Amino acid sequence: MNFRYFFSLLFSVCFFGIVFPQKKDSLQEVSFTDLKQSFYKFQYSQPETAKVYADALLEKAIREGNKEEAYESYLLLSVTESYFGNLSKALENVDKSITFIEETKDAERYIRSISRKGSIYYEFGKYDEATKYYISADSLARIHKNIRYQIFSNQNIGNIKTILGKHEQAVELYLKNEALLEPLKKDNSFVFDYTNTVIGLCSAYSYFDLKKAEEYLVKIKEISLFSEDKDALAYYYTLKGIISYLKKEYLQALETFETADSLVTTLGRKRNLFPIYRFQGKANYAIGNFAESIKAFEKIKVLRDTLGFDHFKYEEVIGMLALSYDTLGKNKKALENFILGIELRKITDSISKSLDYEITDKYDNKIWEEKIAILQKQNDSKNKQNTSLIYLSIGLGLVLILSFIIYQRIKINNKKKFKNLLLKLEQVEKIQVEKSTIKTTKEKKVPDEKVTEILKGLQKFEHTAAFLHKNTSLTSVAKKLNTNTSYLSKTINAHKGMTFINYITKLRIDYALQNLKNNKVLRSYSIKAIAEELGFKSEGAFSRAFKKQTGIYPSYFIKNLTADS
Q1: Three-state helix/strand/coil letters over 367-435
Q2: Angle at CA 359, nearest 5°, toward 353 and 361?
Q3: Were both Cys, which of 123, 170, 344, 465 would link to 204 (CB 3.0–4.6 Å)?
Q4: Which secondary structure element, helix H or strand E, spans residue 155, and what is its range?
Q5: Residue 523: φ, ψ to 5°
Q6: Which of 344, 351, 400, 347 minimizes the C-alpha distance to 372?
Q7: Whole-angstrom distance, CA of residue 99 vs CA of residue 526
Q8: Residue 219 and residue 200: Cα distance in Å, rounded?
């Protein structure tokens, strides 16, 4: 057991179990302000201590009949219960805070409470519920022109967009918050918001711009050290490990995750262990240490059962766990997890569609509605522009309608493309033997012996799927075929009818189509993992190549294959 954790636990039991009860009356003499300040002082560094002050605040507020302070105490208790992984108690306390303000009709406190409720659901991976409360809070914050909670809503809607994989859109929201918070970051009341924004930017950028992610990683460390925020420091080590993993520095990542694990465990933030265990498992899997990857992924299963949280990436965890068992020849465990993975994919797709609709319909479209409302307001004060503004409002409405119609047409076209693609794949599978025979015949007719030799070498290259190697290049293939790059390039142009790059890309996409159609395990991979398997340097490069050749994106193709099966 970590010595610091053991000492902290022993100290808490001895000190809070004995000293505080003895000074119970003296603690009740402390002012409401001092009790709250003490809570915030220990909120992250010593959460057990913070809870003692929250309990004392509630007891004092009830005894003195102070509803405002009782409201504050329930919110603080919801924070500590959530911190320790107690979902039901956290929700119970936030609901009590709402009950306390129903009589006063205090709009700002109501926004604060429903925002907090959304955060509780988010922290436990209940993203569908979290989205509903975030959108409600955002609507009220806009109505009452509450800047703080507009910032809060931007942050959390950004978090949901990150979960949906819309990382660039999430960055836009985080950057908007960063601009708003830059002049306020030295204000202690906004430090938490600024820290969350920087963490969000680091996380979102890591999906498509590692250089930017590393810039914000440095900021997280600076903030955590300056404010002595151990929670922020835990995020720093977690994100540092993830970035090392993405840079393929697997051993460095594993070392960093050990530090993150120790820190998060000491803080008691059990649910924050999920990304640590997930990437520990992925890093061990990448270096072929499947026994260790199994240990990390199994920890996540225990964590999920203990805390009752959900996460979109849990499906990926189960898929990789199944593959790890399969690699080690543990068929029973592999089968058990493959079946679970398929079930999770159906649930995840359903929730994803629901969340995407909620955000697009009730948040993104709200921006359009606000623009129309602003134009209509200007219309009342500027009669000369009355006609043009009406036309513009109608135009915006027509744009929305037209966008919806186009979207529906795209869906129908994509469905047709998907069906045509399946038919082509079936035809390819049927004539595969005939096709190879025809190729051989053509090769025999080529008079140049060297060209014939190269074509035969390419046939073997295709048959062994050597094109999946990530470092495949004109030079490397020419070396394998004992020829020069100029001759190989000209032969591919003349006999394959395309450039070398297009030739390799087509082979990879054809391979993806056939294997995704026939291999359920491959379909359980993330798009990024599939791209890596096929030798593409990035998820974006694979998606663009797939779309260019087939007319649809790989995610759409996989979803429809899964639905048909």
Answers
A1: HHHHHHHHHHHHHHHCHHHHHHHHHHHHHHHHHHHHHHHHHHHHHHHHHHHHHHHHHHHHHHHHCHHHH
A2: 90
A3: 170
A4: helix 147-163
A5: -65, -20
A6: 400
A7: 43
A8: 12
What pLDDT is attached to residue 217?
Answer: 96
Phi, then psi, of 481 in degrees rounded to 5? -95, 5
State how far the Cα of 131 lies from the Cα of 119, in Å rounded to an integer: 9
Measured CA to CA, the distance from residue 208 to residue 212 in angstroms comes to 9
Q: Is 226 helix (H, G, I), strand (E, B) or coil?
A: helix
CB-count exposure of residue 18 (10 Å: 0-12, 13-18, 19+): exposed
What is the Cα–Cα distance from 280 to 304, expressed in whole angstroms?
A: 16
CA distances, 100 to each of 61, 68, 112, 113, 263 (Å): 12, 8, 13, 11, 36
Between the CA of residue 533 and those of 458, 459, 525, what are the distances in Å? 21, 21, 10
Which 3-state string (H, E, C) describes 188-223? HHHHHHHHHHHHHHHHHHCCCCHHHHHHHHHHHHHH
* Cα three-residue angle 420-426-428, rounded to 5 degrees: 100
Q: Are the C-beta atoms of residues 244 and 236 closer than 8 Å to each other?
A: no
Range 74-90 average pLDDT: 87
Quick one: 242 exposed, middle or buried, by C-beta within 10 A (0-12, 13-18, 19+)? buried
Say if residue 529's pLDDT is above 50.
yes
What DSSP assignment string belongs to 493-512?
HHHTSS-HHHHHHHHHHHHH
Single-letter residue type at 167: H
Core vs surface per residue 382-419: b (16+ CB within 10 A) or e: eeeeeeebeebbeeeeeeeeeeeeeeeeeeeebeeebe
Please name the amino acid found at residue 424. K
Residue-wise pLDDT tens digits, 241-293 = 999 999 999 999 999 999 999 999 888 777 789 899 999 999 999 999 999 99
Give the contacts of 557 (CB within 8 A, at least 6 positions apart): 418, 421, 513, 516, 546, 550
pLDDT digits (tens, 9 = 90+) for 143-152: 888 878 888 8
